[in-house]
Write a structure and sequence with these properties.
The protein contains 3 helices and 9 strands, in the order αββαβββββαββ. It starts with a helix and ends with a strand. The longest helix has 15 residues. The relative contact order is 0.16. A hairpin with a 5-residue loop joins strand 4 and strand 5. With 153 residues, the protein is α+β, with helices and mostly antiparallel strands.
């Protein structure tokens, strides 16, 4: 049991130290963007660049939940999470936003009380995959304030 803990601690530390891909967990080599392999960006977002994130993390509860098409919402619950739409722009740029449909991504940022929660959730999902449990596509993504958020499709 002790050796497994060391491996998982090293994985978490490696992600924090920017030497493993935030999507696949493999070493970063070759073309990379903000902690992601180019192939991982293409697989997860169907784009050649990471999307920008258009979201104010400081006031998440100021956003009321709306269900009509073309509007935005956040997902209720204990952990702060947002349902996001990938908006494609001219060229190969994109951004994740609260506005729009379909809302194909869930973003779970860290909180002051639990700053490592996104990393722990990604590690838990990676363990599930390792033991043969199917999971949704997931990754960590770096936000504008340099904190990590958990993202899933």
């Amino acid at each position: 049991m002790r050796s497994r803990c060391v491996v998982f601690s090293q994985w978490r530390w490696s992600v924090v130290m920017h030497d493993l891909c935030l999507c696949c967990g493999e070493p970063l080599e070759g073309r990379c963007e903000d902690g992601w392999h180019l192939s991982c960006i293409r697989g997860f977002f169907k784009s050649d660049r990471l999307p920008s994130i258009s979201l104010d993390m400081e006031t998440p509860h100021a956003h009321p939940k709306r269900d009509s098409p073309g509007t935005w919402s956040f997902i209720p619950g204990v952990q702060r999470k947002f349902s996001l739409h990938l908006e494609r722009k001219a060229g190969d740029t994109a951004r994740l936003t609260l506005i729009g449909r379909p809302q194909g991504y869930v973003l779970k940022p860290s909180t002051e009380a639990y700053p490592q929660l996104p990393s722990c959730e990604a590690l838990t999902m990676r363990l599930a995959r390792h033991f043969g449990i199917s999971t949704v596509p997931f990754a960590l993504i770096r936000l504008a304030d340099d904190t990590l958020a958990y993202i899933s499709k």
